[in-house]
Amino acid sequence: MTSTPAPVILVHLRRPDRSKPNESRTDPMYEFGCFGLTGCHNDNLLNGMAAKGARLGFIQPGPKAMRLAFLTPPIDVVNHGKRTAAHWSPPEMPLRYKDGVMLIDNDGNTDVPSLKAFLDGVQRPTWISRLSSNFRSRTEPLPQQMADEVVSAWETKIAGVERATKYWEALPYMPPKPDTDRKATYERNLAIARGDTPAPDQTPSDPQPAPRGRCS
Q1: Structural domain boundaries in the chain
Q2: Is 203 helix (H, G, I), strand (E, B) or coil?
Q3: What is the per-residue pLDDT across 179-190, written as a single tens digit (0 to 9) for each?
Q4: I need a surface site. Which of 16, 34, 95, 145 has the fewest CB within 10 A?
Q5: Residue 172: C-alpha distances to residues 60, 65, 66, 68 (Å)
Q6: Are strands 65-71 and 55-61 parallel, antiparallel or unpaired?
C-alpha cells in the first residue's frame, strides 16, 4: 500500500535588512530543528495544528532570485504555552544560498516548472515579485504536482552539494549582526515561549519587530 506524501508548505522568509545594525535573521534555527519561536507565525502558519505533519520549504529571497534553502521532514507543531513553534528531526543545516533550489529568478529560470506556470498570470512586474505576492502570507499546502517537483528538486540538489556550516550562508548576504551564539538564542527564545522568561520589548537578535507573518 502506497503512503500519501506529506503536504508541502512554502514559507517566505525575508532578506536581512541592512538598515538595521542589530538584525541577525535568526529564524529558522536549523541546528535545533525549530522554526517560529519568535512568535511571528502564531497568528497564521502555526495557529492551531493545521500545519502538523507538513513539510516546510523555506523560501530565501535574494536580489534577483528566490531559492529554496531548506525542506524539513514532516513537522510537529508544539504549543509551548506562550508561543507555538514547528519542530522536526533530525536537525540539519540548510543549503548555501548559491546552491539552493532555484524556485524562480527574474529571467524565469526555475527548477520547479509547475511553480513558474502557477505564477505566469500574476500581475507583478518581475518573476520574484510574483512569487512574493503569492507566498508572502500563504499557509496552504502546494498542489500535489508542485509539491512533488519541489521534493524532487530538493532531493536532487542535496545529493550533489555540501550543506552550509553557518546559518548565514543560507542568506543572500551577511546580516548586519550575525548570531554567533545560536544555542543561547535558542534557549532564550524557548524560555520566552514557555513563559519562563518575560519577552523583552526588543530582543538582541531582531530589535525592530517586523509586521505579523514577515518576521522570519
Answers
A1: 8-189
A2: coil
A3: 999 999 999 999
A4: 145
A5: 8, 9, 10, 12
A6: antiparallel
Between vectors from CA 154 to CA 85 and to CA 17, what angle results, nearest 5°?
A: 55
Q: Is beta strand 8-12 parallel, antiparallel or unpaired with respect to 55-61? A: parallel
Strands (E), the chain: 8-12, 34-35, 55-61, 65-71, 76-79, 84-87, 101-105
Q: What would the grid cell of residue 158 be?
A: 542535496
AA identity, residue 186: Y
Dihedral sign for Cα 33, 29, 55, 164, please: negative
Grid cell, residue 65, equals 532570485
pTM: 0.89
Q: Any bridge partners for residue 55, and if so which? A: 8
Interval 190-216: pLDDT, tens:
999 998 888 775 444 443 333 333 455
User: CB burial class (10 A; 0-12, 13-18, 19+) of residue 163?
Assistant: middle
Sign, CA dihedral 126-69-153-84, equals negative
Report the C-alpha gap between 2 and 214 in whole angstroms: 37
How many residues appear in the chain?
A: 216
Q: Hey, what's the cell of 111? A: 527548477
